[in-house]
Design a protein that fits this description.
The protein has 179 residues and is mostly helical. It has helices at residues 2-24, 40-72, 78-105, 112-142, 150-178. It has one domain. The model has no long low-confidence stretch (mean pLDDT 81).
């Protein structure tokens, strides 16, 4: 279960950093002279460096806590389980937002609009984590017959994660040189 959460956190962090980079990137036609703009690959690389550790060190523990309570409230109705998951992960996103504001700015937001911008982005990140986790569980369920034992599956996941780390490192080095 822990390796699944690591894979989900890395995938969600990568997708979230791409989405934030698309939002933050200024098109060439709108750029002003004598103003420094980061390129899209630099924004993605910077996002990966900051976002994936947040997903790993905040997202995984909070997700495991939320899943523990969701398993206690599990019902036979799939729609109810899904809505409870969305509600719990949304509340988890609110908790993470308040936790980050407490540690980063001493519990104060610079403005209400800044607070809501951070709040909505972290809620989106938590719901992205939830939906990637659900998709990963569906994929595992679909290919369950091809797996011999859980030990072999964990070995495959570990080797796949190592391969993802190698490729991520290999692909991020050129982006970091552009910064």
């Amino acid at each position: 279960m822990f390796f699944k959460k690591i894979f989900v956190a890395i995938t969600a962090g990568f997708i979230f950093s791409i989405i934030l980079s698309v939002i933050d990137c200024t098109p060439l036609s709108e750029r002003n002279e004598d103003v420094l703009y980061y390129s899209f690959p630099a924004l993605v690389a910077g996002g990966i460096l900051y976002i994936i550790p947040l997903f790993l060190f905040l997202g995984i523990p909070i997700s495991m806590i939320l899943d523990f309570y969701l398993n206690k409230l599990k019902a036979n109705n799939k729609a109810r389980n899904y809505l409870l998951s969305v509600l719990f992960y949304t509340l988890g996103g609110v908790f993470v937002t308040l936790l980050l504001l407490l540690f980063i700015q001493g519990g104060r937001a610079s403005s209400v609009s800044a607070f809501f911008a951070v709040l909505w982005s972290i809620i989106f990140a938590s719901l992205l984590f939830l939906h990637i986790s659900i998709a990963f569980e569906v994929i595992i369920r679909k290919f369950k017959n091809y797996l011999v034992t859980p030990e072999k599956f964990e070995f495959r996941v570990r080797s796949t994660l190592l391969e993802i780390f190698r490729w991520t490192y290999f692909l991020c080095i050129p982006f970091l040189c552009l910064i």
